[in-house]
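One example copied in:
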Amino acid sequence: MKKYIGLFLVIFLVSCKAKVVAIAETKAASDNIMTAEKIIENHYNNKNDFSTLYIKANAKYQDDNQSQNVTAEIKIKKDDRILISVRVLGITMAKALITPTSVQYYAKLGNKYFEGDYAGLSKWIGIDLDYYKVQNIFLGKALDDMHKDKYQVSIIDKWYKLQNNSDSLTQKAFFFEGDNFLIKKQEVIQSSLERTLQIQYPDYKKYNEMILPLSLIIDAFQKDAQTSINIDYKDVTFNEDLSFPYSVPEGYERIFIE
């Protein structure tokens, strides 16, 4: 079963042309630290005006046993569905269709497929997932709705760090740069289980519709194992009419998560 967890992570974390403007980042102001409420407000004030998003990306998957370079096609209909296609040398090796109520994916390696909801999937991967968290990963937004919790503020290196310790089993931290209050890194740590998820956003670009990451780096640590996924966005378009075709090939075996 473990080999499918890595493959699943690869699947997940893979109108006219938009005008691109480079984003400059600013260090957090150590002489006048903002409140957590103000940082959160500034983060959510960033423009997020699109109906559909199409991303072509290169991705590299690496764990303790293998390394694989793939291409990914990511289609997002905002707050409605996400379709991810993973290809090697032009051949579709895996596909995932994600909606607010269900998750479906299949992998050519092993001829397996999954259909289910987020409850079992979250338990299997070890991260509390829902549709909006998956969407936020690709958009460079905070995983959680940060209005719902209280955070301690500090400055680590050049970033504002907001940390939530309300859950004794799971600690969450969010790191923001000091100009547009874009997420630079977010962490979910479960020390008792020796499990950590870290997502980093090295750089961003400004489009007419929103500010979007140029790349993201996902590192998952679990006891003695580590999985890394690097995703580089190569081509981005907004507000096109997109199709979301998904069907499991004949002869594939269904995976059940207990």
